[in-house]
Design brief:
The chain is an all-alpha fold. The protein has helices at 2-16, 24-74.
Length: 75
């Protein structure tokens, strides 16, 4: 949940940044740093999603193997 909250606040930051009165050069740098933060959060979300899918796939394979083994024992 922490990553989602961080992404929410970065969105607010991006919405307010043009109106905060920073010089143009600072604003460009702040937008670049904010973009890098968003890329990093997207990478973390992707890693978390891959791990979650691996767990789901392993559980599915185990369930399929159990039913296959049960069918073999019935012969």
């Amino acid at each position: 949940m922490r990553k989602e909250r961080t992404l929410f606040f970065i969105g607010i930051w991006v919405a307010l940044l043009p109106f905060l009165g920073f010089p143009n050069s600072w604003r460009k740098i702040l937008f670049i740093l904010t973009g890098l933060a968003i890329v990093y959060l997207a990478y973390l979300f992707r890693q978390e999603n891959k791990a979650r899918l691996a767990i789901i796939n392993s559980e599915t394979v185990e369930q399929n193997m159990d039913s296959f083994i049960d069918n073999i024992n019935d012969l």
